[in-house]
Amino acid sequence: MLVVDLHCAHGHHFEGWFASSDDLASQQARGLVSCPVCGDREVVRRPSAPHLNVSHLKTDTAPVPSRRMATQQGGAAIPGSLPSDRPPVAAPDGAVEQAMPASPEEAIRALQAAYLQVVRHVVTHTEDVGERFAEEARSIHHGDAPERPIRGQTSPEEREALRDEGIEVLSLPIPEGLKGPLQ
Questions:
Q1: By Cβ atoms counted within 10 A, which residue in 6, 19, 127, 150 is the most buried?
Q2: Which domain holds residue 46?
Q3: Domain total of the chain
Q4: pLDDT band at residue 39 under the 50/70/90 scheme
């Protein structure tokens, strides 16, 4: 198993898991590797530290937090949560907060992971009405259709017309990798 750090042309960093270097090259040539944040297919491999399986050398049985990420079909990675190595800290009001990320890169990865978590939630908990979004939103607004969370596509002009009618909409880009079933 080859675990590599990848980087898209828009500056998003993510991890991919492949059977071998040849598998990575083959999937890139076929356009199967894309950024999980923006969908960019201009993905390059970055130098990364080797992953050594030394679990058999450990005497302590305490679990170690994993920084690995789940992969989607085709080899491109989907960042998961990135646990900090720093312990949680107590806020003045008694709430527990996670310490700030150690580096700007870690902060960027945490933001990407949070964004993808929100997008996954939206995809999981809404009905995709596709190109019928504007008409379905109007039907729900006027009480002609049952109220439910929906998502779909609409033009900027239709989006503005919905807002003029008092129907609030939110544009949320959904990466191609999250539109289908997740592994």
A1: 6
A2: 1-50+67-81
A3: 2
A4: confident
Q: Considering the domain boundaries, does residue 153 fall inside one?
A: yes
DSSP result, the chain: -EEEEEEETTS-EEEEEES-HHHHHHHHHTT----TTT----EEEE--PPP---GGG----PPPPP---EE-TTS-EE------SSPPEE-TTS-EEPPPPSSHHHHHHHHHHHHHHHHHHHHHTSEEEETTHHHHHHHHHTTSS----EEE---HHHHHHHHHTT---------HHHHS---
Does pTM top 0.90 for this prediction?
A: no
71 and 8 in one domain? yes
Residue at 92 is within a domain: no
Residue 103 included in any domain: no
Q: How confident is the model at residue 140 (pLDDT cuts 50, 70, 90)?
A: very high
